[in-house]
Amino acid sequence: MSVVICENCNKKMKYVYKNMSQIEQMKFYCCPNCRLLWTPKLEVNTSFQSKLDENNREAALKNIRSKEFDQVNNLIKKYLPKGRGLDVGCAYGWYMKSVHKNYVMEGIEPEAAIAQKASKDGHKVYTGFFPQDMPKEAGIYDFIVFNNVWEHINHTSKLIKESSRFLKRGGIMIITIPLSTGGLYKISEFFEKVGRTKELIRLWQLHFHSPHVYYFTKKNFVELMTKYNYILLECQDVRGLDPKRMRERFEMDMDEQYGKLKARLFQMIYPILKKLPADKAVFVFRYIG
Ligand SMILES: [Zn+2]
User: Fold this and answer.
1) Which of 2, 37, 81, 162 has its CA at 20 to 30 Å from residue 171's CA atom?
2) 285 C-alpha to center of ligand 1: Å?
3) What percent of the chain has a predicted confidence (pLDDT) above 70?
4) If you average pLDDT over residues 114-124, what whole number do you get?
5) Sheet with 103-109, edge to edge strand ranges
6) CA 8 to centroid of ligand 1, rounded, Å
7) CA distance 20 to 115
8) Nearest partner of 214 among 253, 266, 178, judged by Cα
9) 193: CA distance to ligand 1 center in Å?
């Protein structure tokens, strides 16, 4: 097996999550220095077929995501009163719809049918992957938003560099990502260590067509971005779970048989979970390249 090098600090990464690796037939690596987690061989399944139940996905995510979007929009307003923005991985266009009319939004989305739905509200939506499918005429933007998308794209340093090509100097990058320092992540990691892999497999979304390729910490993510001429303006915790919508959240996985029971258990432990470190954060950077 070839050596896997950390994109953040160039250290040799260690093979981790042996139980999950064995079951999923793929290898996970962790940097002993900065704790960046990476599964370099994971690719997006472009057939877009998976065990993801779209109806439950919508019911589970719509409310909580709109709360997240308010958080993102308040941050944009703080640093940029108006401008033209790109929503990478815009899905159904929910986020673009939430943006104030002072901003002109465009999106890019790999699934053609979904991209078409997103464009129904009048936003320009490109079909394909960012950045390789962005047309030249798109030009450069005042801000770029990655809402729960960044962690799905492989070769993160390349993604930072290529994003800069689409961003004005002084432009804003807003990125929401899940964190490996979160309470739920730590619990799932502990379960994996003792042989129960289900929770960690779900967090990495390994059975969905677009799994997570990375898990970051706040510290290593800021370090990475800083290397490529981004300065951190602000980072806020995001509470991305809605205790009232957990059944749908569990049942997004078509194989899930105990969604109702698990949702009840979740509601019982939610007051404790709420006090643990957040499982997600939103970062605002300024590009000074
Ligand atoms: Zn590292």
Assistant:
1) 37
2) 20
3) 93
4) 92
5) 124-127, 103-109, 83-88, 141-147, 167-178, 280-287, 230-238
6) 5
7) 33
8) 178
9) 22
For the cut 80, the answer to whether the pLDDT of residue 48 exceeds it is no
Task: State mean pLDDT over 248-269.
Answer: 83
Question: How far does the centroid of ligand 1 lie from the alpha carbon of residue 224, in Å?
Answer: 9
Report residue 23 as tokens: 């079951």
* pLDDT score recorded for residue 266: 84
- Domain extent listing, the chain: 44-287
Q: Kindly report the CA angle at 37 between 16 and 245, in degrees rounded to 5?
A: 105
Contact at 8 Å (CB) between 130 and 249? no
The stretch 107-121 carries a mean pLDDT of 93
Structure tokens at 218: 């706040």
With a CB cutoff of 8 Å and minimum separation 6, the contacts of 117 are 92, 93
The CATH code for residues 44-287 is 3.40.50.150
- Angstrom distance (rounded) from CA 175 to CA 222: 11
Where is pLDDT greater, at 174 or 101? 174
